[in-house]
């Protein structure tokens, strides 16, 4: 087993009150409880089936400008399908380690698809308390079933059905975000790749951790995607940075958590904000989440949309191929 390639933290053995040094983050980056005077702000929750289209556009645009993240309810994805998605993902991570390793990301792969525990190529960065599985669920021409688990047997059927519903939600979000900028409804989707946008599913598995105060599930970052649409389980842990403080996302059963990613921030020339977020872990429970990253095709050049550029609003970002943007981001190189 190639532990330089992937190391499953769930299988590590150590004293119940300690964790290995490589997982202990610098003190200033460790999770800390923040106290507030007054009521703790909550991430906006939006009814995606709002009968007033103008109100829906306004709510989504305001949340994307102020927070960069919001939750949606009444989104049209059946609750039993979400439960099945969570069930098959959980069963995969409960498999013996050698079975999960069958789907490991190849050592020389340029893609992030596959099972593993490390994403960024930087040995100086502390390890995160997480295992993950990446694979594309749409479009069919981009799917590589090599990374889709055969066990549990219903895994493929559930994920293919989820992808169909996910496309409907995505179109509604892109349309509202475009209208919120005063653009045609198709503008942002087309700017991010149109029908060639890749839907990259990631399953995050954060095992119970004896010292959750010392480590992180995922370090603070913005997503390099256009949008991220996430299903969590009931264990809290997603935190959002806003106004100098970290806020925990409230768990709402069957809600989807929508992150504005880097590419939407670029396309909107900074009107919409990519959300800075991180993940904490729990002592006695496993946390899981199912984000879908909506990513432009690698060769697509992404830059601020021309309709938003004016004399008093010059471009704030360079236009560049998405694959080059991703390479710089994952290798911590300047954009």
Automatic annotation (TrEMBL):
Keywords: Dioxygenase, Flavonoid biosynthesis, Iron, Metal-binding, Oxidoreductase, Vitamin C. Its cofactor is L-ascorbate. GO terms for biological process: flavonoid biosynthetic process. Residues 196-296 form the Fe2OG dioxygenase domain. GO terms for molecular function: flavonol synthase activity; L-ascorbic acid binding; metal ion binding. Pfam families: 2OG-FeII_Oxy (PF03171), DIOX_N (PF14226). InterPro entries: DIOX_N, IPNS-like_FE2OG_OXY, IPNS-like_sf, Iron_ascorbate_oxido_reductase, Oxoglu/Fe-dep_dioxygenase_dom. Transmembrane segments: none annotated. It comes from the Eukaryota. PANTHER family: 2-OXOGLUTARATE (2OG) AND FE(II)-DEPENDENT OXYGENASE SUPERFAMILY PROTEIN-RELATED. Belongs to the iron/ascorbate-dependent oxidoreductase family. This is Fe2OG dioxygenase domain-containing protein. It comes from Populus trichocarpa (Western balsam poplar).
